[in-house]
TrEMBL record:
It is a multi-pass membrane protein. The keyword Lipoprotein does not apply. Keywords: Membrane, Transmembrane, Transmembrane helix. The lineage of its organism: Eukaryota, Rhodophyta, Stylonematophyceae, Stylonematales, Stylonemataceae. It comes from the Eukaryota. This is PRA1 family protein. Its main location: membrane. Belongs to the PRA1 family. It is found in: Membrane. The chain crosses the membrane at residues 59-79, 85-105, 117-143. GO terms for cellular component: Golgi apparatus; membrane.
């Protein structure tokens, strides 16, 4: 097995893990007050563990708020740039096609899974950059990164193990 196939297997395993975690999550948590979301912005310590911990806690605590922000950003961007819907749809369809087990034959040559994977990696990077969809992804990055600046120290939060929610 080559390094490209190893990467492909790792990406598939990771995406299955993420999908399983998302399916098991409790998504009916009501949104937290918006004023609370924006009131305590502080710069975190320059420790990767601290930043990761704050991001994890804040994304879980304000998960519904972040989903609403990302949804509004997507809707706004699609209304302003109609091509973005086509671009994202093309990329999704390409990945579904690339990860399918059906063999692809072009001009009598069978295309391997590794080649389909590499092609889709290039398309996923180049197509949004050329069409301007990258602006939306940058916005999502800013929305998610902002969660590291909210100070919700772990001492103030208690995890309720039964339903994946966090209470103060």
């Amino acid at each position: 097995m080559g390094s490209g196939e190893d990467l492909f297997v790792k990406v598939r395993l990771w995406s299955n893990e993420v999908a399983q975690e998302l399916m098991n999550r409790e998504w009916r948590i009501p949104p937290r007050p918006w004023s609370e979301l924006f009131e305590k912005f502080t710069i975190p310590k320059r420790d990767a563990r601290t930043i990761g911990s704050r991001m994890y806690l804040n994304l879980n605590y304000y998960q519904t708020n972040y989903v609403v922000m990302v949804a509004f950003t997507i809707i706004f961007f699609i209304l302003r740039h109609r091509w973005s819907l086509f671009v994202v749809g093309t990329i999704i369809a390409g990945w579904v096609f690339a990860t399918s087990m059906k063999p692809v034959i072009i001009s009598g040559r069978k295309i391997r899974r590794k080649e389909k994977f590499y092609f889709m990696c290039v398309v996923t990077i180049v197509l949004p950059a050329v069409t301007g969809v990258t602006k939306a992804f940058f916005t999502y990055f800013l929305v998610i990164t902002s969660s590291t600046f909210i100070d919700r120290s772990p001492e103030r939060l208690m995890f309720s193990r039964g339903n994946n929610s966090i209470t103060e």
